[in-house]
Every structure is written in C-alpha cells, then in structure tokens.
Amino acid sequence: MTACPFCDRIAAGDYAEKSRGMAAVAFPPLAPVTPGHLLVVPVVHVADALANPCITGDTMQFAARLACDLGLKPCNLITSAGA
User: Fold this and answer.
1) pTM for the structure as a whole
2) CA-to-CA distance for 80 and 47, rounded, in angstroms?
C-alpha cells in the first residue's frame, strides 16, 4: 500500500480496460456525486495538477477523448491543485 489512494487503485487494476490510456486511467470515485462521475488520473504519480504541466495536459487530453468516446456531452472537466 502506498500513501496515494489513486496509485493504489491503479496498481490494483481497479479500472475498466477501455478506461486506460497511455497517460491516464479513469474509474468511478468511491462516493460519486452525480451519475457518470469519473476520476481521471495520470498513471504516473504527481502531487497535484501543477506539479507537472505535461502530465496534466496529457491527462486532460485523455479525459476529453474519453468523454467524447462515452458520449458524455455536456460534461464538466475539472482539475484540482491542493486541498
């Protein structure tokens, strides 16, 4: 077990194979706030969205592509840095 719950879920394979890209994976949160709620996280650990802009960009690109593939329109693509 690591100190990162997202890395733990990735290591456990807790995502659908169709929800994995080269840079990121997607899985539902443990407590979704709306139907279709997904977390899209990079496969490489980063502290937050500001730690590595290239990884953040790749992750957001995957999220946008996944939303299109799943027909999730309209949708919200939100990122966080810190608490």
Assistant:
1) 0.88
2) 10
SS3 11: helix
CA-to-CA distance for 83 and 73, rounded, in angstroms? Answer: 28
Alpha-carbon span 68 to 83, nearest angstrom = 28
Helix (H, G, I), strand (E, B) or coil at 19: helix
pLDDT digits (tens, 9 = 90+) for 18-61: 899 999 999 999 999 988 899 999 999 999 999 999 999 999 99
DSSP 65: H
| Pairwise CA distance, residues 55 & 53, whole Å | 6
Query: 53 with 59: CB under 8 angstroms?
Result: no
